[in-house]
Structures are given as C-alpha cells and as structure tokens.
C-alpha cells in the first residue's frame, strides 16, 4: 500500500494546473483577438462592397491562420469577383445602350429638323388647333391671311371668319366627323387681315378622336384664284355655247332661205311663163303680176 500524498504534492499539482489554465486562457485570448480582428477587418472591407466593386477600388482582404476564417474570406473574394464581372457586363451594356440612344436621338433630331423644314415650306397653310385656338402655324398660313406667325399663334380661329354664324356653322359641321376619326373636307369663305374675302379649302383631322384636348391638324389651301378661273371658264364656256347656238341658227336660217329662194325661183319662173301666154291665165294675170 502506497503512502498517502503529501500536502506539498497537492500544491505542486495545483500550481501546474493553474499555470496550464493560464496558458490556455492566454492562447484563447490570443486566438480570440486574432479571430475578432480578422472578422472586424472582413466586416470593414466588405462594407458597401458593390460600390467598391463598381468603382474598381482595390480591396485589402484580411488573412488568418484559422482555416474557417480563410474559407470565409475566400468566399467573399469569389463573390466580389463575380460581382465585378457582372458590373463589367452591365457597364458594357450601358455603354451600348447609351450609344444606341445617342444615335436614335440624333436620328430623331435630324428627322424633326427635316419635318420642320417641310412643314414650314409647304405650299399650303398648316395649323394645329386646340379648343379652336391656334397653337402653331407654318409660314404659308400667315401668308394666306396676311398675318405673321406671332399674330396667329395663340389666337382663336374666330378672327379668320367673316361672321360669328360662319364660325359656329363650321364647328357644327366639322366636329361630329372629327370625333369619329374621319377627315373633314370643305370649302369656305374666310377673311384676311385687311378684310379681303378669301376662298379656302379646309382639310381637318383630330390627333386623337377619343381626346379632343390633344387638338386637330388643319390644312388650308387658298383657292380664290382657282375659283375665279373656274368662274371665268364657265362664263367663257357659256359664251362659246351661245355663240355656237347662234351660228347654228344662222346656218339653219341660211339653209331655209336657200330652200325658199329655190322654191321662189320656180314660182317666179312659172309666173313669167304665164305672162308670156296671157290668154290662158287672163283670170289670174293680176296675181301673177304681183308675184313677179
């Protein structure tokens, strides 16, 4: 039977155990600090990570002797690389879209410029009207009515009509068709700035028949000269027809006179023969003499 341990032996073991515990605590403290430090660094560098990737900032990734921490850092690095690749693709797509938008914008700008040239130099008047107010006209519109663009734009179309009755009559005729999306085409007499009456052909179309607040487009053609020419042509044709009728009557009268002269010549001839033999026609000699 072994002798019981001495008190000194317990003290030594306790001291050894205490020292071992202190070493373990120190190692744990060291490892904890390393772990916390790595975690804090990782948390710091990963903060606002998409912005850093988008701006191509260099990221100083932390390193650790702990495998799990290294694996976590590696995952963050792989995610960052994927984000960087995606951002690059998005940037390329954005650049392509911006180029396409710039090209389309330039094309649209050029097209609008061409359309504006066509509208402003069109040989007929063109106007956009909203609530019977002129909001835009081309130069020809002003030329027809002897107004400038500024004098027409913003004004009611009433100033172009000879009377309130004519103004309301056109609305009653036009708007039922415009509300159906149909084209309104009519000829009317309007008045220029100096009071001259002008024969105008209207052609109107609603931009959106379901919402007349968007306005209507009107084409106006000055047909005054054409109407005058048509009237002169009709007068000439009437005069020509009257002349032809008179000529026909003259020819007819000449033919009748010619035939009558032929008959008369025969009668006169027979009367002359009768006078030469008065004994046979003594009872009618007075009438025969009158005919001769």
Could you explain how this protein is built, in words?
With 292 residues, the protein is an alpha+beta fold. It folds into 3 domains: 7-89, no CATH class; 122-222, Beta-Lactamase (2-Layer Sandwich), CATH 3.30.450; 230-286. The chain has 8 helices and 5 strands. It has helices at residues 7-46, 49-54, 67-120, 139-145, 149-152, 164-178, 224-276, 285-291; strands at 125-130, 133-137, 184-191, 197-206, 216-222. It has a 5-stranded antiparallel sheet with strand order 2-1-5-4-3, sandwiched between helices. The mean pLDDT is 79.
Question: How is this fold's topology laid out?
Answer:
Layout: H1 7-46, H2 49-54, H3 67-120, E1 125-130, E2 133-137, H4 139-145, H5 149-152, H6 164-178, E3 184-191, E4 197-206, E5 216-222, H7 224-276, H8 285-291
Antiparallel strand pairs: 1-2, 1-5, 3-4, 4-5
Helix pairs in contact: 7-8
């Amino acid at each position: 039977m072994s002798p019981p341990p001495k008190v000194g032996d317990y003290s030594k073991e306790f001291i050894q155990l205490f020292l071992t515990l202190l070493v373990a605590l120190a190692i744990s403290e060291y490892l904890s600090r390393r772990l916390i430090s790595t975690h804090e660094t990782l948390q710091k560098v990963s903060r606002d990570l998409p912005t850093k990737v988008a701006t191509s900032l260099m990221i100083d990734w932390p390193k650790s002797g702990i495998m799990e921490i290294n694996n976590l850092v590696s995952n963050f690095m792989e995610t960052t690389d994927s984000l960087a690749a995606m951002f690059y693709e998005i940037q390329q797509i954005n650049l392509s879209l911006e180029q396409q938008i710039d090209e389309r914008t330039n094309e649209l700008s050029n097209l609008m410029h061409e359309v504006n040239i066509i509208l402003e130099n069109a040989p007929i008047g063109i106007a956009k009207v909203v609530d019977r107010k002129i909001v835009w006209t081309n130069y020809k519109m002003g030329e027809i009515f002897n107004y400038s663009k500024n004098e027409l734009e913003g004004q009611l179309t009433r100033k172009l009509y000879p009377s309130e009755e004519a103004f309301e009559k056109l609305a009653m005729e036009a708007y039922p068709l415009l509300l159906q999306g149909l084209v309104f085409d009519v000829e009317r007499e309007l008045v220029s700035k100096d009071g001259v009456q002008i024969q105008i052909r209207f052609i109107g179309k609603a931009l959106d028949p379901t919402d007349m607040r968007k306005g209507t487009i009107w084409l106006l053609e000055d047909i005054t000269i054409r109407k005058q020419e048509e009237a002169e042509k009709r007068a000439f044709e009437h005069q020509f027809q009257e002349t032809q009728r008179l000529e026909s009557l003259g020819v007819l009268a000449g033919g009748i006179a010619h035939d009558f002269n032929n008959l008369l010549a025969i009668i006169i001839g027979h009367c002359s023969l009768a006078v030469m033999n008065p004994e046979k026609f003594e009872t009618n000699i007075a009438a025969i003499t009158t005919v001769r």
